[in-house]
Amino acid sequence: ETGVTQTPRHLVMGMTNKKSLKCEQHLGHNAMYWYKQSAKKPLELMFVYNFKEQTENNSVPSRFSPECPNSSHLFLHLHTLQPEDSALYLCASSQAGQGWRNTEAFFGQGTRLTVV
Amino acid sequence: KQEVTQIPAALSVPEGENLVLNCSFTDSAIYNLQWFRQDPGKGLTSLLLIQSSQREQTSGRLNASLDKSSGRSTLYIAASQPGDSATYLCAADYGQNFVFGPGTRLSVLP
After folding, report:
1. Closest chain A CA to residue B38
2. What is the pLDDT of residues A32-82, one digit of tens each?
3. Over chain B, what HEC string results?
4. Residue B25 forms contact with A (CB below 8 Å)
5. Chain A interface includes B101 (CB < 8 A)
């Protein structure tokens, strides 16, 4: 266990469904991230939250909607997804210091999403 | 554009060999560099973190070096074991973004 927990571990959803991915960290970190890992592609940063404020959004389609209610929890709300959105979605956390100098980043086990 | 590459893409070695995995990054203005291990379908496990001011870090059979000026890092694995089989990823930390390489898929044969 890395201290970052993601649920569910697997999710199959239709293109018209609405679902949410959850991430929880027990490390006292102040920054949380969503990454997407598609087959044969490097991890892609989707969203970054620092002190609960979204600071990065790498041109992610609006069908993905993040929510960070507090520094320990991060959600990714999904609606009207496409089959190409099928991927492993990874959550990470770190302690972002002055000038965004991060400590070691810890990742969750990921949610394997399949859109049918 | 900040990019990270890793060589080789895949590596297969017999048990007991020492091996080196390479990571290169285009923008040397990193805060730190981190090496991860990923087992199939799983999340990432942090192996080593090297701060930009450091040259190397060691943990057990693993040693990672960093040459910031040339944009390179290497991960050295001593006396490889079948349990080391996994994909190894390096990530350059540029502050609000960890830029990942595509990974090196390692197979250690018994």
Report:
1. A109
2. 999 999 987 888 989 988 876 676 666 899 999 999 999 899 999 999 999
3. CCCEEEECCEEEEECCCCEEEEEEECCCCCCEEEEEEECCCCCEEEEEEEECCCCEEEECCEEEEEECCCCEEEEEECCCCHHHCEEEEEEEECCCCEEECCCEEEEEEC
4. no
5. yes
